[in-house]
Structures are given as C-alpha cells and as structure tokens.
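User: Show me a protein chain along with its predicted structure.
Assistant: Here is one chain, sequence first, then structure tokens.
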Amino acid sequence: MKELEISLPTPPKPAGSYIPIVTSGNLVFVSGQIPMESGQMKYQGKVPDVQSIQNAKNASKLCIINALSQLNAYFGTLENVEKIVRISGFVNSEESFSDHPKVINAASELLVDIFGEKGKHSRIAVGVSSLPLNATVEIDMMVEISQ
C-alpha cells in the first residue's frame, strides 16, 4: 500500500444500527462502506447528473479504503488477508444510467493492485435509487483470513 501511496484512515463510525465487522470461521464480512473522509461525506448525489463517472470511481476507491481500514482496526493488520472473496457495489444513479460496472471496476482494480492474486474476487455492481446519507457509492466486502 505504501507503493500506491495509500494510508489507512481511522475507520468511519457506523451510520446506523449495525457493527462494521462480523466474523464466521475464516470469513470476515465488512458492512457497507460509503465514501467518508475525515468524518465527512466526500461524494454525494447521483451519477451522472450530480457526480461524474470519474468522481464515482474515486468514491468506490474510497469505500474500499474505508473497508480496509475497518479490517485493519479490527485485526491490527492486513497481513492475515488470504483472499478478497466478494464485493457488492451499489451506485446511486439516475434511472437511465447503466455503467455501474465501470464505477465498481475502480474498486476491483484497487484491490488487485493492493493484494495481487489475493485481490481477485467475485462481485455485483448495481444501480440504486438512493443510498444512506445520499452517498454516491456503497461497497461491502467478504474476506477470507488466516487464523
């Protein structure tokens, strides 16, 4: 991550009545992360009318960074990540927008850049009519860890 000039922030607090991490055996489920930065929503509004596709891609990367910060805070390291199993990407989009995969590709590519083969995963990329706090993107993640 140093090579990519990525530093993990303090993880955002949950925006609702849930916990950010749940474990079951070697699987870790990271609750949906929105593009918060320094306690503020960085990207709000629908794609492409309010936010450009490029801004939405940046939002998806920020969601991944926040998800990784949740993992790091919970385990104290990311060294135990064996595999990114799946991500689910939700794009707050106008009804006619259909480039959801392009937006979530940025998140997928970042995971491969960080973890290499371990970062390759299954996923969904869907458009929705709204997201919490009017976020542009929300992403959750399932990860396999070593114990």
